[in-house]
Amino acid sequence: MLVKYYSDMLSKKSAIRNLFDFGRSRAEEIGKDNVFDFSIGNPSVPVPDSFNESLKKFADYKDGTLVHGYSPTLGIQSVKEAIAASLNRRFGEDYTADHIFMTTGAAGALAHALRAVCEAGSSVMVFAPFFPEYVPYITGAGCIPKIVPPRMEDFQIDFEKFSEMLDESVSAVMINSPNNPSGVMYSEDTIKKLCAILSDAEKKFSHPIYLISDEPYREILFGGIRYPYVSKLYDDTIVCYSFSKSLSIPGERIGYVAVDPRAKDAELLVPVMGQISRFTGHNCPPSIIQLAVAENLEVTSDMSVYERNAEILYEELTRLGFRCVRPDGTFYMFPEAPGGNSEELSERAKKHDLLLVPGTTFGCPGNFRISYCVETEKVIRSLDSFGKLAKEIF
Amino acid sequence: MLVKYYSDMLSKKSAIRNLFDFGRSRAEEIGKDNVFDFSIGNPSVPVPDSFNESLKKFADYKDGTLVHGYSPTLGIQSVKEAIAASLNRRFGEDYTADHIFMTTGAAGALAHALRAVCEAGSSVMVFAPFFPEYVPYITGAGCIPKIVPPRMEDFQIDFEKFSEMLDESVSAVMINSPNNPSGVMYSEDTIKKLCAILSDAEKKFSHPIYLISDEPYREILFGGIRYPYVSKLYDDTIVCYSFSKSLSIPGERIGYVAVDPRAKDAELLVPVMGQISRFTGHNCPPSIIQLAVAENLEVTSDMSVYERNAEILYEELTRLGFRCVRPDGTFYMFPEAPGGNSEELSERAKKHDLLLVPGTTFGCPGNFRISYCVETEKVIRSLDSFGKLAKEIF
Question: Parallel, antiparallel, or unpaired for β A368-371 and A357-358?
Answer without folding.
Answer: antiparallel
